Amino acid sequence: MTNSFLRVLALLTVLLLGGCAASQMHGYEPTYYSYNVPQPLLDAVRLKLRQNGLVDAGIVRDSTGRVRLAGSYANEDEVDRAFVIVQSIVGIKSTSPFYPENVKLTRWESEASRALAANTTASRADTRPGRRIAFVVGINTFKDSKHFKPVPGEDDARVVMRSAEKAGYSVISLLGSQATKAAIEAALARVERDLRPQDSLFIYVSTHGTQPLPTPQGGDNRRMSIVAWDSGDASINNEPDYYLNLQRTAVSDTLVQQLAKKPTRNTRILIDTCYSGEMLRGLPDASGGYIARTNHGAPERAGISLASWTGPAFTAKGIRQAFEGPPADLGKGKAARTTLADELGSERAYTIITATSEGEQSLAPGNPDSTFTLGARQLKGSFFTQAFFAYLDEAQGHVEPAFEKAREFTRNKAQEVSRGERTQVPRHFATQSADRNSL
């Protein structure tokens, strides 16, 4: 009798621990949660797909009741449009993140092939001294002020520009109304065209982010686009149509990643954007009640996925030192190198820093003109960017110690200003050791 009781107790303990883990680990919630998307919302999705020319697209319910894309798509741009429609009607949580199986032309296969083909012997033979190039975007207020609240992007960008110039970078900047979609895309194309393998590249972006979309890697490897000064349209009041317009008028992070995958001596990227469900909460929409219930009354939030810039997706996008030959140990009976640092080569440095983890907002003082203190300093801007570059000065440009201090400061500050209701935990990925990773 005692043994039976102990077995039951052990089983209950396992189940309780499993449920606790499921509720706390990001990405596991859908496995243990059943979604009941109302049929009228499914009908609205199908109608909106047809209205936007996606006549071969379809949707089905997955095993947990989420809406999953089915049917066929000409390319990943069509898939993106379909995800925008589904997410805007039923919400991010009720949308299955897995890509449809029938996509005729995949974006990264063609782009990776072009990138590798472009790395010719001519680029190897270039013996000119390497340059330091920085591309900085920062926006405080937006043309569509109805839907985009002010953020301290320009304040942050000016601090970044000063630090980059001090470190010897030639800075290309777009601030405020200069940072239109056309201007950002043109600048990205120009930097990509002129970048050489021996150069060092630094990219900084501080603005709003759009609703994140799934990637072909599936799971929670979501990516998001960058809101330009002229993104959006204040006259559109229908939520799916607004999101579709926003997708068209924002700058795809594909373009930033395309620049990041160019062969360089080193590449540094810092993204200080967030997506907040509060951004468009004022748009009237019949699905708002369902989405609110699914999120227990809270606005839906998600953020840039570090996984979309690293791991298998990272190397699949061709981010590698193109003038490096195949690993020397291949063909000699030794195991192939499998780590990301090995894939990139010992001479290639790559760093990606995001100001938040997924599902978090990038926080700053509530009043755009307010300042906050860090030691004896008075800083104006977002908590993470301002703290990171202040600590970077103290660390003489060394990234790791500056990041660790800024992350701890940001985490504590987020808890303080929100009275424990919000978190902000910045993330950092690098391919080289701490003693070599400096701005």
From TrEMBL:
InterPro entries per the UniProt record, alphabetical: Caspase-like_dom_sf (IPR029030), Pept_C14_caspase (IPR011600)
Ranges of residues in domain Peptidase C14 caspase: 131-430
Region (Disordered): 411-439
One MF annotation (Gene Ontology) recorded for this entry: cysteine-type endopeptidase activity
SUPFAM superfamilies found in the cross-reference section: Caspase-like (SSF52129)
PROSITE patterns in UniProt: PROKAR_LIPOPROTEIN (PS51257)
A Pfam family reported for this protein in Swiss-Prot or TrEMBL: Peptidase_C14
Composition bias type Polar residues, residue spans: 430-439
Signal peptide extent: 1-27
Entry-linked Gene3D superfamilies: 3.40.50.1460
Signal found in the keyword field: yes
GO BP annotations listed: proteolysis
Keywords from the named record: Signal
Ranges of compositional bias, category Basic and acidic residues: 411-424
The name this protein goes by in its record: Caspase family protein
